[in-house]
User: Fold this.
Amino acid sequence: MTSAIDLAGFRAHFPSTASLVYLNSGSYGLLGLSVRAAMERYLDDRMRQGADWYGWCALEDEVRERVARLLGAQSHEVAVTGSASAGLNALASGIDLAKRPRILVSNYEFPTSAQIWHAQEKRGAEVIHMAEADDRIIPVEHFRAAIDERTAVVALSHVCYRHGGKLSADTIRAVAAIAREHGAVTVLDCFQSVGTERIDVNSLGVDVCVGGMLKYLLGSAGSGFLWVRETLARTLQPTTSGWFAQADTHAMDIFAHDPSRDARRFQGGTPPVPSLYTAKAGLDLILGLGVDVIERRVRGLTRFALERLTEAGIAFATPDDDNLRGPMIAVPSTDEERLVALLMDQRIVTSSRDGNIRAGFHAYNDESDVVRFVEALARSELCLRNSAAARSEVGN
Ligand SMILES: Cc1ncc(COP(=O)(O)O)c(C=O)c1O
Assistant:
């Protein structure tokens, strides 16, 4: 049980919370004191000794181990990458499309996780999109009807970056089971959820999980991860590679390609060294407070926000069901860019996508942030009011 003091202490670790209502964690998490110190440590280390390759490789392994812990996985199943895209590109390059050209892509995807699969069309891929229904849900039945022996990959995003709708654990489990029955690989992009709730890749039954450190994991840009189930990783031969993807990074053999037996085969060149410092510090903040504590806090805040929006008569585009919602809520607007700017003038930081204002919550937020956000929305003329017509317009 976490006390209010733990959460207050966590908030205090992010000094910007004193002057900002920061609701943009779905874009970039706030900078914590220890993460800032980690970046400074990198600079100090550079000043002191210039280069520390063995130390940096050990640091990469420490990041790998923490990501594995977060996902309920094993360290050697984790590739530490420079971005989610880098991991997905390496994965895609290793998928044989000759007998299985079909790739199912959910419409929850962030552009990168759809574009990379479309890029495989040059290699013969046939990409099929799985649309969401009006209530933001993508029914399992749609996947069941589409997955067959020609399907190589089923690409899912845990939480949709546009409206904050989430695929429930039951849905992911069911889709992954259908994919497995047909010999297809399930890829879960958890970038918009990791750090804010427990993700157990084995219990979900997915084969690959991709994400990055800069949002809810509280690190910085330039670091990502790709988890690949051990038994799958060994069967895939990515055609993107590099010396940090070799079985022995220090072998320096220019006459052969000898990929690591582990998920490191999905890496490439020099690791993102400065971002490894911040990634480790961010992961330590998450693991230190505890994902379950964060999950409860974030769920409570998003629920409180939806209740306050309802009281204020403001429509929202995020599913009301706690199990179908990630850390972000979305509020439809008649002019979302103007509304983001208007909120920014009041030191309330949000972002916009697809006709919505997006507000992402972390454990450093509190109820006062929700109140200031909803009061500012209520004062603006740029939100849809919660009439029956507005609710059906936003599918909620
Ligand atoms: C769900 C999701 N996937 C992937 C990405 C892109 O990741 P990267 O820029 O690290 O490739 C983002 C970035 O916002 C995202 O929200």
The two ends are 34 Å apart (CA to CA). The first strand starts at residue 21 and ends at 22.
